[in-house]
Structures are given as C-alpha cells and as structure tokens.
C-alpha cells in the first residue's frame, strides 16, 4: 500500500472546500434564523481524540459552533469518529445510528458523517450502505485531510458518499485547524499506523502502515504549544517506539526534544510495544524531571505459546527483564499493562502463566480484556475459540489479582505529599478536584476553605499543586491540597 504525503495542491483544495462550506452553512443558517451547530462523537483511543480535535477545528472554520446538547443531540452536522478495537464500540455506533433516523426525518438538512477505524472494515461499510441510507458521508482515518472536500462533494451530490482510500496518507498537524479540548493538555501524534499485525488486532488494517511525521515539524509544534502555555503534552502513536524520522531520528530523540521545553510540566506518551522499547528511552524517563515516571507496556499474555499465536515477537522472560530494567532505573516509577484473557487456544496452564507473570511484575495498574474476535483479523478464524464461561471465570480471577496490586500501589502513597498536575473538577463531586502524579496515579482531592484559593476551573486547570494523600482506593487515591505552586 502506497504512503502519500499531502501537497500544496491538497492544501489549496482543502482551503477552497472550507470556504465553500462556510458560505453554504452561513446561507443555511440565515434561512433558519439561527447559527448552525456540530457534534463530533468520539469512540476509542487518544489518536481518535486527536482526530476529533481536527474535525472540530475544521467544522469551526466552516462557521459552525459546538452543540451544547448530549450525545443524541440534533445538531446540524453530526460526525461519528469510530473505533474498531472493541465490540461494544460497534454496538454503540449502530445503536445510535438507529436513533438518528427519526431525527434526520425531523431535521431534513441534518448531515450525518461517519469516519474512524470502523470504516476500514468492509462489513461495516456494507451495513451502512444497506441499512442506513440516511448517512450522508462515510470516510476513513487516512483521509482526514480530505474531510472538507468529501463533505462538500456529499452536499453537492445530495447522495450518500462513501470514500475509503487504498492509500495511506500522512498530513502534518500544521495542515489542520485544531480545536484542542483541554486548555492545559495537548495531544501530539508523532506517527500513524502499525506494522506489527498482532493476530487479534484490526489496527494495521484500519490505520494502515507505519508512517512517521517530520521531526522538525513535531519540534515546531511542541515549541508553539509551549509558547501558548500548555503544561502537558501527550506524544501519540499506535507504537511510538517505532518512530522513524528523517536522518535516523528515533522516538528517544522526540522524547528528549519534548523534555527540553521547560514550560511542559509533564511529557507523556502512548502506546509502547515491548519489542521496540529501548534502554535510551528508559534512561530519558529516569533522568528528565518533566518526563512522566510511568511506562505503559502491553504484556497481553504471560504464556510464550499464546504470545507466539498472538504474533507478539518477545518471550515473557524478555518482557519481565524489560519491566525489571524500568523498575531499577526509574525510582518510584509506575508500570501498567494490557492483558487479554481467553485468546483462542489459551489453556488453563497458559492462564496460570499469565497470573504468574502478574505476580512477578506487580503492575501498578492493568487494563484487562476478554478476547473478542474482530472481523478481518487472523485470530477471528482460529478454530480453538474459548467458551465464554471459561473466559468469564479467568477474567474474574485475573482482575481480582491485578486490582489487588493496583490498590497496593495506591496504598504506598498514603501519608505522602505528592506533586499533582490538576486536570479539573473530579467526577466525585463539585467540590472535589482531580489530577495525576508524575507516576500517573489518579488523585481526587479537596481544597480547604482556609487556604483562600480561587477554585474556578479556569484558575486551577494545568496548575501544579502539593496534595497530602489520605486514602487509597482500587483505582485512585484521595487527598487534601496542601499548597498551590506559584502562589
């Protein structure tokens, strides 16, 4: 599959389509006697969140404003940015699409578009064509830079437009207007796609082959974000460790460059494949104060047999050696992982090896999943699928163990005063705030009135503070703010 970089002609066509759509939506709004709105519904990973920020930026350039309604709001333009990794994401999309049928009848000028990874699965596209004719536009993630052109052509034709590319495009972030959703955190993709072809994963088919952004363009973007006051950057990629820039630049070079911007209180990254993690990256995590002391390293299974069937090119011994290297070099660092239960052919012995690996690694947190077959992957055709009752039983035993280690990790913080980057109001309540330590532990905390601190989100988001940790929970810790840095 070809990898194509955007050109000046692509940018001119992009800008022309934006201008035409601005005129169209302005005229339509005048006829309706109100401003037009958009709603971007995002499913899946941080890369999808980043793509949605670009979609929102483009729609804003077209003269639309964000809808203030909920997920099923009758905005004038609705874009679903989909995920194909988890089965429930599929159900969520098609369930919502059914609800929009009535809204579309009531609001005939409404535009519904669907993008994201699900649109690279032919069965999903065929289903939309057959059962959801009121969807106006279907496009895939590689064509994000062509979204205004495709939306314009869909409106012109007044027919459903389905455009799924056979090429892997790469466009620099500077190509797009970006509506960043967090005032203090910026998502910065450094590469796209994946060449690993794990047998359970649809990503290489959905996101295409690995392609890396220009090192100079990434540094330019980081410099711009630093000058605008962003306190945290998240470097993104399906596998950031496989970044290959010009002149031999590696992910270590990107991480080092990001850490040199002292304006950033936190430099984070996702996701990391065990086969590509270098000692140099671990050393940077250990020695650069603003690089998060946290590594997310997906183990997936503790059985070498299962890892081989998954096409994960490492042994559990190598994985545990890498984990130990991180633990020994990064003082107080946290290690998290992903684990799949019930992969085809997994025996009870294989599962016990996974439990043994968890006991050895003592992960600070683990994201555990029951295997579900994804259409188009090799594992979906494997004959030795595991009965659901066995999968459910193993999943329960695994989560009980991983939750115990997570709570022990949180309990080690009790009694300490930790530096926390404030993210905003906590889900726990109006007078509780949340943030994360440099080790990525989630902290919910209150602010004593006697400190006299302005608790408005605009004042606190992105600020560093000191929090005394008083209580550990399975997935977070509670505390009380001691001081706000800079005051």
Structure description:
The protein is an alpha/beta fold. It folds into four domains: 3-170, Methylthiotransferase, N-terminal domain (Rossmann fold); 182-292, Transcription Regulator spoIIAA (2-Layer Sandwich), CATH 3.30.750; 296-412, Transcription Regulator spoIIAA (2-Layer Sandwich); 417-484, Nucleic acid-binding proteins (OB fold (Dihydrolipoamide Acetyltransferase, E2P)), CATH 2.40.50.140. It contains 14 helices and 21 strands. The protein has helices at residues 8-32, 46-61, 87-106, 122-131, 147-157, 203-207, 215-227, 251-259, 279-287, 304-309, 316-329, 348-361, 388-411, 457-460, and strands spanning 3-5, 37-42, 65-66, 77-82, 111-116, 137-139, 161-163, 168-170, 185-189, 191-192, 211-212, 232-236, 266-270, 294-296, 334-341, 365-370, 417-425, 432-436, 442-446, 464-472, 477-484. Helix 12 links the parallel strand 15 (334-341) and strand 16. Helix 1 crosses helix 5 and helix 12 (348-361) runs parallel beside helix 13 (388-411). It is globular and about 60 Å long.
Spell out the blueprint of helices and strands.
Blueprint: E1 3-5, H1 8-32, E2 37-42, H2 46-61, E3 65-66, E4 77-82, H3 87-106, E5 111-116, H4 122-131, E6 137-139, H5 147-157, E7 161-163, E8 168-170, E9 185-189, E10 191-192, H6 203-207, E11 211-212, H7 215-227, E12 232-236, H8 251-259, E13 266-270, H9 279-287, E14 294-296, H10 304-309, H11 316-329, E15 334-341, H12 348-361, E16 365-370, H13 388-411, E17 417-425, E18 432-436, E19 442-446, H14 457-460, E20 464-472, E21 477-484
Parallel strand pairs: 1-8, 2-3, 2-4, 4-5, 5-6, 6-7, 9-12, 12-13, 14-15, 15-16, 19-21
Antiparallel strand pairs: 10-11, 17-18, 17-20, 18-19, 20-21
